[in-house]
Predict the structure.
Amino acid sequence: MQAKERLQQSRQSLAERAGGTAVVSSDEFAAGKTSTFADMLAYAPGVYAQTRHGDETRLSIRGSGIQRSFLLRGLQLYQDGIPLNHADGQGDFQLVDPLATDYVEVWRGANALELGANGLGGAINYVSPTGLTAPRARAEVQLGSLGYRQLHGAFAAKGQAWEGFFSATRSLQDGYREQSATQATRVQGNLGFRFSPSLDARLYLAHIESKLQMPGSISAAAMEEDRRQAAARYRPLNAQNNYRLNRVAAKLNWQPSEQRQWVTSVYTHQRQRDHAMIYGFINQALRDSGLDSRATVNWNDGPLVRKLVAGAAYQRMGGDESRFANPDGNPGNQTGNNRLTAAQTTWYAEYTHGLTEQWLLQAGVQGQRATRRLDNRFTAAGSYDERYTGANPKLGLMYRLDPQSQLYANVSRSSEAPPFGELVVSRTAPLAWAQKATTVELGYRTRRDDLQVDVALYRSQIKGELLSLTDANGVTLGTVNADRTIHQGVELGAAWQWGQTRWRANYLYSDFCFDGDPVYGNKHLAGMAPHVLNVQVRWQPSKLFWIAPAIEARSGKSWIDHANTVSTGGFALLNLSLGGEIQHGLNWFVQGRNLTDRRYVAGTAVQANAAGKDGNWYFPGDGRAVYAGLQWTLD
């Protein structure tokens, strides 16, 4: 019961935002193969999540990090409100265990100001089970095509003044392509203590080990020859991204009354990465530590809302990065040795004022200061020490049509300091500066017993978007700040229950382009299909059986390069899931993906100007696959 109450409270809280938000319950993604971000967020409104290979996922909201083919940028990840990203803004896909997640909160764009996030895409918060919300024990096994195996176990316990949750997951997959095997071990838990009716604390521990082989992108000609082959040299040089993380966090919650709450979190992450690429080998040993403190005060005037949220956060990352030649998949001669130091301080406040019982006004502001320092121990000229500051205001208005439905509008500003991956010392271009955007958003949402709709229209005018470009002579500049770009589109999520049948859909329309650029004019930005649609129909005549066909579709030209000389077309995949309850606490599923064995492109390596030629730009999508799972739960 507490799990349902906590989920409902989250939905009610996010529904009070004058902007795009969503809550995705684990019930919506657990009945099928569940190992990647794409598995979890396929039907989250406004979220683009596409698996490239193995666990590697392209994750974006409103075009955040649009050209990224590694890690994550422009989108902040949180677990229980505690940051998971590096202090320089980059994030990893291996951090979250989908099977150890109760629900996911999606805060699109500047609507994540309350969490302290400042990126174009907003924030995604993964909420963990606790000893109060999780069943006493749970075990699950998933098996399938491409050598897929996943084992998961969890248990929860509680006493008079304490409770706890622990889980462990082991997943392996051989992969569809050569050099695309993955394996991951995720062990995590949390322990809660209640010191008094108004004071409680929670300790979080996690250990993650991930090994991800990399097949690379290949040409269209190579796809015609053999879609499953790895790119040249990727297999002999054993290209892979191996990752280890140890994480400790603690949260203190003081709530002397329903009107006042103060939450403070501290955390530290120790990360070790061994990254073999065809042009070298990178070894990183990095530590992130941080503090976040947030206060919420309500002083409602009768039915009129009066709410203030204010907080501050500090995060610091430091560590060493060593670079080596890669003659055979192992570190060769050392070619670089860097000391990386990043820090970010953020202050934020947001006030909600009920003008009437129907009208709400929200005003917020966020200030930030970031530093990026690289000490190049091989070449002093390659060192830098940069400072970035920003102020991000937000103004929103919401109208309650009825207790379940709202209209909203807002205008906001965001500011992203570049991560180390976008800061390259070059003779042809200066170091990148902070990417800034002004976004206008209009939306409507309703949540009723039989119908849920979430639709938003947005337009972001971006100054200095971080893109890999060329100059007017075709000379490669690397990642630099573009002049002006526009991201605009439509986000639509819907679900409808009709008798024994439930329909759900997630549609994205994305129109991203340059705005009068001296080199690229008004051309479209590369890397995103204009139309993305996921649709599922689930029929459940009884607890014993359900069946759910689904379509995963992309349409329109997806440009490979910003110069718009090469593009790839869309695709439509047919998926089918079925399952049921064998007895109370014992459930099964079988899931088929890409049942027609459609050949398609799952992702692209974004280029500045491909000059109309074929090249290694394409990540072939997985072929036909079938998965099955059995889940046992003890309440």
